[in-house]
Amino acid sequence: MTDRQRVVQRLTETFAWADTPVGVFADLSGWWRDPELLGLLGPALADLHSARKPTVVAGIETRGLVLGPLTALALGVGFVEVRKAYRIAGEAQRDADDPMLRAETPPEYQDGGLTLMAPRRLFTPDDRVLLVDEWIESGAQAHAVRRMVAEAGAQWAGVAVIVDATEPRVREHLDVRGLVGEDDLPA
After folding, report:
1. Are 164 and 185 in contact (CB under 8 A)?
2. Can you give the residue ranges of every domain in the chain?
3. Measured between alpha carbons, how far is 77 from 85 in angstroms, rounded to an integer?
4. Per-residue model confidence (pLDDT) at position 1
5. Nearest to 87 by CA among 58, 122, 115
6. According to CATH, what is the number of the domain 42-184?
7. Who contacts 45 (Cβ-Cβ below 8 Å, separation ≥6)?
8. DSSP string of 107-173?
9. CB-count exposure of residue 185 (10 Å: 0-12, 13-18, 19+)
10. pLDDT tens across 109-134, in order?
11. For the chain, what is the radius of gyration of the CA atoms?
């Protein structure tokens, strides 16, 4: 069995849907609890876009902050946190000392959209930026990060995710590659 096959097997074996009072949600806690899977995720995500030779990995708060460093280590490159603006304390003071890139998601994303931010100095014109996250559906956050990368003059290397649930046109535009599709997960 290849490492990729082992990753897919562990992803499906440790995945569950959680039925809550407000709806059914993906319960990914089994993924984070499985040490074998954690050891395999970074290299597996890195392999999805290794031919693009990323020079930096970006990850969106919250789960991208777990998966991004694992992938960056596998690629031998650095990592950039992309934060949600409402969670950054002292934003006004920080902007004066360290200008931030900002991009909005559409209003329909999470019932109103959000602002994503990252320090401008962490993306250079020589960079090829790979975005890593656990799940992609609409691509709203990835589109926002791609705009930030372009504003910094860096190149977009694509998106590497555990679960790709995008439409074909979004997948193509963002160059999304996933370890599994949503339909591959147990019902």
Report:
1. no
2. 42-184
3. 25
4. 85
5. 115
6. 3.40.50.2020
7. 67, 70, 71, 74, 132, 160, 161, 162, 179
8. TTGGGT--EEEEEGGG--TT-EEEEEEEEESS-HHHHHHHHHHHHTTPEEEEEEEEEE---HHHHHH
9. middle
10. 556 788 999 999 999 999 999 999 99
11. 16
pLDDT of residue 107: 78
180 contacts 8 by C-beta, under 8 angstroms: yes
What the block records as the tokens of 154 is 């860096």
Structure-derived torsion over alpha carbons of residues 65, 78, 169, 8, reported in degrees to the nearest 10: -60
**Low-confidence stretches of the chain (pLDDT beneath 70):** 86-97, 108-111
Q: Judge contact between 146 and 174, C-beta under 8 A.
A: yes
Residue 161 makes CB contacts below 8 A (sequence gap 6+) with 45, 132, 133, 134, 135, 136, 176, 177, 178, 179
Q: Using alpha carbons, list the distances in angstroms from residue 146 to 6, 71, 121, 154, 159.
A: 31, 18, 16, 9, 10
Q: How many helices (H) and strands (E) does the chain have?
A: 7, 9
Residue type, 42: G
- Mark residue 113 as left, alpha or beta (left: phi above 0; alpha: psi -120 to 50; beta: remaining): left
Q: How far is CA 27 from the centre of its chain?
A: 17
